[in-house]
Amino acid sequence: MTRLTPGGRGGPYGARSEAIHLPSFTAGRRTARRVGRREVLILIIRHKLFPALLAAILAVAPAAALAKRSPRVAPKRVRSHVSLHVSGHHVVGGRRIAIRGRVRPAGSHRVKLVLRGPGGTVRGTRTDRRGRFALRWRPGRPGAYRVRAYGVHDRRVRGSASAARRVTSYRHAEASYYGPGLYGNGMACGGTLNPGTLGVAHKTLPCGARVRLRYRGRTVAVPVVDRGPYVAGRDFDLTEATRNRLRFPGVGVLLSSR
User: Could you give the 3-state DSSP secondary structure of residue 8?
Assistant: First the structure.
């Protein structure tokens, strides 16, 4: 057995009497030896604290290794919604229009704008932190365009598309009309001219090509049905039915998409 010798005022192991009698064996005889306070602390650390620390390390190590080996789970993509608006559906003389939209959920997302039509193009942009985007676009040539925005998929959202918006770019054109006195005659593109025929005459556009005409807020889309006009400086000859739809005077300037 280990026998501790209490000290004086310094407590059980005071500075004045710091002796511990430990058994030892010398030449077959059991003797006692005295150790100091420092050796007592070493014995306590060796036999008490070190085993407890080793047990704590062994308990934590498997959990840390398991956490290190577990694969990182990628965030789940959510479905996005893209809205699109244009400042006008009728553009005259190559003027610019504003295209605005929004992607939900909010945040910075890539957006691709596809503009289909004569001289169509693809534009790319990025939303702000609220998911909004805006840009200005000028149609390259007269004609009908379809504008659509696509939200590009990323780590957070899946790709989506907006509804298509129609934009028509017009040019100024000189026009007149014909019909009275010619009803019953054949037309260059086939058929017979009558008071209810909707169409226009043009010198070079293919027969059947659709032309969108606009005059003072009224719009009509009609095919090319005949050849003409043969008066210098004029682009179209409107049938009487087309003229009535537009409430167009006999001769004047209107807007044409071709």
Answer: coil
116 with 59, same domain: the answer is no
What distance in Å separates the CA atoms of residue 122 and residue 113, rounded to the nearest whole number? 6
pTM of the predicted model, to two decimals?
A: 0.63
Distance between CA atoms of residues 19 and 13, nearest Å: 8
Write out pLDDT tens, residues 122-133. 888 888 888 899
CA dihedral over 11, 15, 17, 22, signed as positive or negative: positive
Peptide bond into 75 cis (omega under 30): no
Residue pLDDT, tens place only, 19-78: 444 454 444 444 445 556 677 666 666 666 667 776 776 666 666 555 556 566 666 777
Domain termination residue (choose one: 163, 187, 210):
163
The residues that bridge with 209 in the sheet, in sequence order, are none
Are 242 and 222 in contact by the 8 Å Cβ rule? The answer is yes
Domain count, the chain: 3
Query: Is the four-CA dihedral 43, 44, 48, 51 of positive or negative sign?
Result: negative
Beta bridge partners of 238: 177, 200
Q: Using the 3D structure, point to which of 19, 47, 69 is the last residue of a domain.
A: 69
- Report which of 231, 100, 244, 95 is spatially closest to residue 170, judged by C-alpha positions: 95
Same-domain check for residues 246 and 180: yes
Task: Report the CATH number at residue 145.
Answer: 2.60.40.1940
Q: Where are the alpha helices (DSSP H) in the chain?
A: 37-44, 50-69, 240-246
Q: Residue 137 belongs to what domain range?
A: 78-163
Residues 56 and 99 in one domain: no
